[in-house]
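ligand=NAP
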Amino acid sequence: MPNTITGDTQLYAIIGDPIFQVHTPEMMNRLFAREGLNAVMVAIHVAPQGFEAAVKAFRVMKNLRGFIATVPHKTAAAALCDELGETGCAIGAVNAVRREADGRLVGEMFDGTGFVAGLRAHGHDPAGLRVLLLGAGGAAAAMGFALAQAGVASLTIANRTRSKAENIQAVVRKSFPHPIVKVGEADPTGHDLIVNATSLGMKPEDPLPLDTALLTPDMKVAEAIAKPEFTPLLTTARAKGCIVHSGRHMLEIQASMWMDHWWPKESAKSKG
Ligand SMILES: NC(=O)c1ccc[n+]([C@@H]2O[C@H](COP(=O)([O-])OP(=O)(O)OC[C@H]3O[C@@H](n4cnc5c(N)ncnc54)[C@H](OP(=O)(O)O)[C@@H]3O)[C@@H](O)[C@H]2O)c1
């Protein structure tokens, strides 16, 4: 159970549209309680047309310390911040925002660094691997950027809307001259790590994001999707002998990254 809410409880929000599906408040409130922090996170449902007004209100709420922006607000959140971290600046989207005491907003994107940290925590260092990235939405942009930063040998981006894959290619190339970054097809042949960053697999009726007949047991297959923990792609890949990696790890590891972003220099004791 989260802490009892008192007059000096620090507020955090996760803001999205829709919002009913998120599990971040449970995860963060458990973490706040475990850390002994007098803090609470609530989910706030705001449509795109109301997002700017909501952020303006956050600026004047003196006991609001930060928020998580989720679909579809990550790009709009970056545009409304006063300061951006390196990744947020490069890809133009953020998911964690800190409110400074004077109301200034500092944002950064942790989806990609969280994904790479989750891979490494489970013994799958992506450095030197040939990666196929499926999807070119907000999560894929952050994941592609972080994979290039982590030193992959090559990155092939495949997306239904090719122009969005080309945009990510341009952003990654600008920051990282080393990996070969190309736009290609959803064909895993010749790749070591296959990453699904499309939303295909969230709903039971979704088609698979690639032809799983082309998977071979030497390939690792990773997901952005955290729920279900094992998507049809991961279940099929595992049955074919591939090592699989759930999107749950990417989400869970971000909790401590967000905490560090919200309390950059303070001791754990003064967090709440
Ligand atoms: N585990 C975590 O911490 C975490 C964090 C962030 C996101 N995610 C997950 O990552 C996934 C993507 O999120 P996002 O924020 O990047 O969403 P997004 O910006 O809406 O992008 C969705 C992506 O899926 C593709 N797509 C959707 N429907 C498709 C279809 N029917 N056929 C082919 N491609 C399709 C889109 O292709 P087009 O560009 O052609 O539309 C796009 O590449 C979601 O499942 C989300 O839950 C997980």
